[in-house]
Amino acid sequence: VQLVESGGGLVQPGGSLRLSCAASGITFSTYFMRWYRQAAGKEREWVADISSTGGRTNYADSVNGRFTISRDNAKNTVYLQMDSLKPEDTSVYYCHTIVSYVNYWGQGTQVTVSS
Q1: Which DSSP symbol is given to 43?
Q2: Residue 113 pLDDT class (50, 70, 90 cuts)
Q3: C-alpha angle 12/72/100, rounded to 5°?
Q4: Which site in 63, 89, 107, 114 is 20 to 30 Å from 95, CA atoms measured?
Q5: Three-state SS for 29?
Q6: pLDDT at 84
Q7: Residue (of 8, 103, 84, 101) closest to 46 by Cα position
Q8: What is the CA radius of gyration of the chain?
């Protein structure tokens, strides 16, 4: 199983970014997918998740209404659209899934929100 994130970068407060996570080695369309983030010196925290079909999504209170998780099962990719970004959103963002009770993580992509 391999998860590869991309799309991070430096953005000004109020700006937008779209993260992507490309999955391989799994039948992607059958797995729940999640995004987490970890700021420097803090614990990793859950951000959002999406069901295998994309029909159900859930968000942390801190991002609800600003972030949107989606997936394209034909491309084996999950996305995180991040709008109205705030400095406190600065973190390394990771995608995650569980396959046969084993946790899999990507390498992470850095998002920095600063003027």
Answers
A1: -
A2: very high
A3: 105
A4: 114
A5: helix
A6: 98
A7: 103
A8: 13
Query: Residue 57's pLDDT is what?
Result: 98
Cβ-in-10-Å burial (0-12, 13-18, 19+) of 40 comes to exposed
Question: 20-59: per-residue pLDDT in tens?
Answer: 999 999 999 999 999 999 999 999 999 999 999 999 999 9
d(CA 77, CA 79): 7
One-letter amino acid of 13: P
44: amino acid identity, one letter: R
What gap in Å lies between CA 8 and CA 19, rounded to an integer?
A: 6
Q: The tokens 């929100």 sit on which residue?
A: 113
E strand intervals along the chain = 2-6, 9-11, 17-24, 33-38, 45-50, 57-59, 67-72, 77-82, 91-99, 102-105, 109-113
Residue linked to tokens 């990771």: 94
